[in-house]
Write a structure and sequence with these properties.
Number of helices: 18
GO molecular function: 4 iron, 4 sulfur cluster binding; amidophosphoribosyltransferase activity; magnesium ion binding
Protein name: Amidophosphoribosyltransferase
Number of domains: 2
Shape: globular
CATH topology of the largest domain: Glutamine Phosphoribosylpyrophosphate, subunit 1, domain 1
Bound molecules: guanosine-5'-monophosphate, iron/sulfur cluster, magnesium ion
Cofactor: Mg(2+); [4Fe-4S] cluster
Enzyme class: transferase
Number of strands: 23
Structural class: alpha+beta
CATH class of the largest domain: Alpha Beta
Pathway: Purine metabolism; IMP biosynthesis via de novo pathway; N(1)-(5-phospho-D-ribosyl)glycinamide from 5-phospho-alpha-D-ribose 1-diphosphate: step 1/2
């Protein structure tokens, strides 16, 4: 998911709409905005579909006045499987004796099922099936006298990954979980401030990037001032390495590094680790493009767009049903026959999850007359599900969970298949010594199976680490 909020600008909701549009790659199912205006109070609009189709309409935007607003773009992740209902669309809003508060959450809480049961037993009436709603009910039960203290209180009870943006009548609040699994950044716009999942959404509104919210940090922005605090016990950060590989936009800056440059560098590592004799390096666009550029540069093999992407399609993986995803490949990608015919192709993609994409692309490229296909993947094999806010399927559907690399190669049907190593990936994100085995610098659970936060709801359901 993606979150964005702004304070201290007139017509804040329009800025939020722009920010969410720039974060659309983080969630395409639905979006929502809440704004506050001293005369009109809190207002909200929550809609299915793209930001550009909903939050450009004057009839919608006219209902969201004020100089303070937050928003969310959604895609359903582990825990909330299936089609999204409009009641699951954030931001969520709670009216307490001490005032109203809206929250937007990116990430996934790993103890939400447990919390929900306890809260329901104590009388909470849940409106949605979302894990994030727990935060509102925990706030309702807190005895603290300010809303920001109640948010702290609530977040001390949750486990998992959370980058949360919240707003009261006067404050814009941002919090990251102690490990800082999901991103959250701070920007300045005129006299006001913005909080965003990624820097690319600051760019679109012309905001200046100030810094990241740190893991375990809470910022409260009010009347042009920023107050920072540390509500949680200190922990060693474990940012999601997959944000670098796929999830974030290539024009964003994560941890001081250009995402594009990291992806290009993964391609360089891949070319060193898994060279092959070939005539052309082709990305699976767009997710494989920067890594393919790096592979081509390092190997000296020419780069070409052997596959062309229809720009009017979204991200396939983020489509929640298998049926749409299966159709997705052909709707989205087509082979540039004139370029690939007769050639030995190095095909570069960011990841293999179920393997269905890879298999179809291989068919398409062989149909077009390629002589050989060598598949190179800019991440290690995805063998474990993510419980922290990226929608990987259950373990049994992950190709790498049950097959060796050679079995995957055969199943996909390519001449060779190589994944970048975990150490290669760590080098590409700037860890020159590779992965620290005792204390890894990132979360890489989907590749290593080492979960930095125990997925307790899953364990209770029988998931074995
Ligand atoms: P597959 O067909 O192997 O299940 O899908 C892999 C493709 O899905 C890759 O091309 C990758 O770009 C894309 N993808 C989109 N979202 C995700 C995600 O959240 N996780 C992973 N691993 N791949 C994703
Ligand atoms: Fe990111 Fe993978 Fe960790 Fe999920 S399991 S937070 S996708 S690195
Ligand atoms: Mg892709």
């Amino acid at each position: 998911c993606g979150v964005f909020g702004v304070i201290g600008v007139s017509d804040a909701a329009s800025f939020v709409a722009l920010g969410l549009h720039a974060l659309q790659h983080r969630g395409q199912e639905a979006g929502g905005i809440v704004s506050y205006h001293p005369e009109h109070g809190f207002n909200s609009a929550r809609r299915f579909g793209y930001v550009r189709d909903n939050f450009t309409r004057t009839d919608v935007m006219a209902t969201l006045p004020g100089s303070l607003a937050i928003g969310h773009v959604r895609y359903s992740t582990a825990g909330s499987k299936g089609a999204t209902a409009i009641r699951d669309v954030q931001p969520f809003f709670g009216e307490f004796s001490i005032g109203g508060c809206a929250i937007a959450h990116n990430g996934n809480l790993t103890n939400a099922a447990q919390l929900r049961r306890e809260l329901i037993d104590r009388g909470a009436i849940f409106q949605s099936s979302s894990d994030s709603e727990c935060i509102i009910h925990l706030m309702a039960r807190s005895m603290q006298r300010t809303l920001s203290e109640r948010i702290k209180d609530a977040l001390r009870h949750v486990e998992g990954a959370f980058s949360v943006i919240a707003m009261t009548r006067t404050k814009l609040i941002g919090v990251r979980d102690p490990l800082g699994v999901r991103p959250l950044v701070l920007g300045r716009i005129g006299e006001g401030y913005a909080l965003s999942s990624e820097t690319c959404a600051l760019d679109i509104i012309g905001a200046e990037f100030i810094r990241e919210i740190e893991p375990g940090e809470m910022v409260v922005i009010e009347k042009g001032e920023i107050h920072s605090s540390r509500p949680f016990a200190p922990a060693k950060p474990r940012f999601c390495i997959f944000e670098h590989v796929y999830f974030s936009r290539p024009d964003s800056i994560l941890g001081g590094r250009s995402v594009y440059e990291t992806r290009r560098q993964i391609g360089v590592e891949l070319a060193r680790e898994a060279p092959v004799e070939a005539d052309l390096v082709c990305p699976v666009p767009d997710s494989g493009t920067p890594a393919a550029i790096g592979y081509a540069a390092e190997s000296g093999i020419p780069f070409g767009m052997g596959i062309v992407r229809n720009q009017y399609m979204g991200r396939t993986f983020i489509e929640p049903t298998e049926q749409i995803r299966n159709m997705g490949v052909r709707l989205k990608l087509n082979v540039n026959r004139a370029l690939v015919r007769g050639k030995r192709i190095v095909l570069v993609d960011d990841s293999v999850v179920r393997g269905t994409t890879s298999r179809k692309i291989k068919d398409m490229i062989l149909d077009a007359g390629a002589a050989e296909v060598h598949f190179r993947i800019a991440s290690p094999p995805t063998a474990w599900p993510c419980f922290y806010g990226v929608d990987t399927p259950e373990r049994s559907k992950l190709l790498a969970a049950s097959m060796s690399e050679e079995e995957m190669r055969e199943w996909i049907g390519v001449d060779s298949l190589k994944f970048v190593s975990l150490d290669g990936l760590y080098r590409a994100v700037g860890e020159t010594q590779g992965r620290n085995r005792e204390c890894p610098q990132y979360c890489d659970a989907c590749f290593s199976g080492e979960y930095p936060i125990a997925p307790s709801d899953q364990i209770a359901k029988g998931f074995q680490i």
